[in-house]
């Protein structure tokens, strides 16, 4: 049965995926070029890790709550 509604969690997953991809790309750019913002603990590479986590979480929500999925 198709209800025609799209879950809010799908949109949250898409947003997390987009922001995670952007932040992770910036983190990878920092790692490759060696250019980094002048911040404390820059050596922890927080943008790469945080972006990857957001991307994975966003993909999980996008796939689990995608429109047309029956459960």
Can you lay out the helices and strands and say which pair or pack?
Layout: H1 8-33, H2 46-64
Task: Describe the model.
This protein is an all-alpha fold. The chain contains two helices and no strands. It has helices spanning 8-33, 46-64. Helix 1 packs antiparallel against helix 2 (46-64).
Give a quick set of tags describing it:
single chain, 71 residues, mainly alpha, 2 helices, transmembrane, transmembrane helix, membrane
Q: Structural class of the helix and strand makeup? A: mainly alpha
Radius of gyration: 16 Å
Portion of residues in helices?
55-70%
How are helices and strands ordered from N to C?
Answer: HH
Q: Total strand count, please?
A: 0
> How would a textbook summarize the main sheet?
none
Overall mean pLDDT: 89
> Distance between termini?
10 Å
Number of helices: 2
Q: Shape, please?
A: rod-shaped
Indicate the low-confidence ranges by residue numbers: none
Strand content: under 5%
In short:
This protein is mainly α and 71 residues long. The protein contains two helices and no strands. Helices cover 63% and strands 0% of the residues.
